[in-house]
């Protein structure tokens, strides 16, 4: 089951994650919308979400993202959100350059508050509470007597979305939580690095907020497969081919609801099903963070580079990239594997970003730390209610 993000106001569900970071800072007075500017570092959808939330509050947003991200992201930030945009060098996986820009802003201005999705627990807490419980609700609607909620699959960028797996674990202890990344930048699978084309994920480090102890497996998806399927799912000849092999009109109509990372999630779900030998009673959940609307320029680029699409190419892409998915480039993670992945956080967060080593250790050893983090939302809700009463705004509205 694929949960669709396109219907959120920015066309991606990260608008909620941004809200999860912003709301606590407003109600605790750490962010003053009349004075501060909200800085949203990301590779696109989170900073678009933050810019959207900032605009609603009539406050200025500064979006930081790599210069090679899709044209649609930049156009939206400029035209819809009217945000100040800072483009940093590189592409999807160049997050270190974004962090460097954040440090520069922090050191030179006192009117900025940086909402770094990679270390803000509000991001993970939003997904734990909202995405997690939405999945549970949907599962309750579709399950049969034989069903099992068998897996939750999520590509990791900031590792906010995967936190829904922490919520689901409390309800379905045997579920498999699967992280996915690009084969061209397999940081979890192989401590790897590299540029890739699955925009929104795989940023060459382990986010501070990724509870790696709760990740059961990792899959690495070839970005060439996702790009070929992006064409299959969005080109007219692709749809004609899919119809000819019996795919329903309804399904074909919905295929553009998947952006590139969503296609990656779909492939990761297929690998997961094959690896764990699942059957029709096993329900796998994953998310379509955004839709192909964010990548029409990428489809144009592929057309220019490779020529017009054809039914023959569609058949090849279907067989190789979808039906041909197997269990290569994935690993089930044991305790020590997870520990090794967690340890990678040291290099980014302690050495580069000035986190305390004791906090790093606590994230691994302190058994209450994640629960406390995820359950802060009850307190935030109380503070939001108090805040609304104090300002009287809701009564006027
Ligand atoms: C298109 C897309 N897919 C996947 C992700 C990864 O989600 P998360 O950052 O919650 O890990 C993002 C993050 O912004 C994204 O923009």
**In which order are the strands of the major sheet placed?**
1-9-6-7-8-10
Rg (CA only): 21 Å
Ranges where pLDDT stays below 50 over 5 or more residues in a row are none
User: Total strand count, please?
Assistant: 10
Q: How many structurally independent domains?
A: 2
Any guess at the CATH architecture of the largest domain?
3-Layer(aba) Sandwich
Describe the overall structure.
With 397 residues, this protein is α/β, with parallel strands linked by helices. It has 2 domains: 10-117, Rossmann fold (3-Layer(aba) Sandwich), CATH 3.40.50.1100; 131-332, Rossmann fold (3-Layer(aba) Sandwich). 51% of the residues lie in helices and 13% in strands. The chain contains 19 helices and 10 strands. The strands form 2 sheets. It has a 6-stranded mixed β-sheet. Strands 4-3-2-5 form a 4-stranded parallel β-sheet, sandwiched between helices. Strand 3, helix 3 (71-79) and strand 4 form a beta-alpha-beta unit. The longest helix has 22 residues, at 121-142. Bound molecules: pyridoxal-5'-phosphate.
């Amino acid at each position: 089951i694929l949960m669709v993000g396109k219907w959120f106001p920015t066309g991606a569900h990260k608008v909620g994650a941004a809200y999860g970071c912003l709301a606590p800072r407003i109600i605790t007075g750490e962010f003053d919308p009349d004075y501060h500017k909200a800085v949203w570092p990301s590779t696109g959808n989170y900073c678009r979400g933050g810019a959207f939330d900032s605009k609603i509050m009539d406050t200025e947003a500064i979006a930081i993202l790599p210069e090679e991200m899709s044209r649609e992201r930049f156009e939206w930030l400029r035209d819809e959100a009217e945000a100040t945009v800072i483009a940093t060098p590189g592409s999807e996986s160049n997050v270190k350059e974004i962090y460097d820009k954040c440090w520069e802003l922090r050191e030179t201005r006192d009117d900025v508050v940086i909402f770094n999705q990679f270390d803000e627990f509000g991001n993970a807490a939003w997904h734990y509470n909202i995405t997690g419980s939405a999945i549970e609700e949907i599962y309750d609607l579709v399950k049969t007597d034989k069903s099992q909620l068998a897996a939750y699959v999520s590509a990791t960028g900031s590792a906010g979305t995967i936190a829904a797996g922490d919520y689901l674990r409390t309800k379905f202890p045997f579920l498999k939580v699967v992280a996915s990344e690009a084969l061209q930048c397999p940081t979890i699978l192989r401590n790897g690095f590299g540029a890739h084309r699955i925009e929104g994920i795989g940023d060459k480090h382990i986010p501070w907020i990724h509870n790696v102890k709760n990740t059961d497996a990792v899959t690495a998806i070839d970005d060439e497969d996702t790009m070929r399927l992006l064409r299959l799912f969005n080109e007219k000849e692709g749809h004609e081919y899919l119809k000819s092999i019996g795919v329903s009109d309804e399904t074909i109509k919905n295929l553009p609801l998947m952006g590139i990372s969503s296609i990656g999630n779909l492939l990761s779900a297929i690998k997961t099903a094959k690896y764990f030998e699942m059957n029709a009673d096993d329900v796998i959940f994953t998310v379509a963070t955004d839709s192909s609307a964010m990548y029409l320029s990428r489809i144009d680029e592929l057309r220019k580079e490779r020529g017009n699409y054809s039914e023959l190419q569609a058949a090849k892409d279907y067989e190789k990239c979808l039906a041909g998915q197997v269990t290569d480039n994935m690993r089930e993670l044991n305790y020590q594997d997870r520990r090794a992945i967690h340890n990678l956080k040291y290099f980014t967060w302690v050495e580069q970003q000035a986190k305390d080593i004791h906090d790093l250790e606590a994230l691994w050893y302190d058994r209450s730390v994640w629960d406390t983090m995820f359950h802060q939302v009850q307190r935030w809700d109380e503070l939001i209610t108090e805040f609304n009463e104090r300002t009287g705004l809701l009564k006027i509205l």
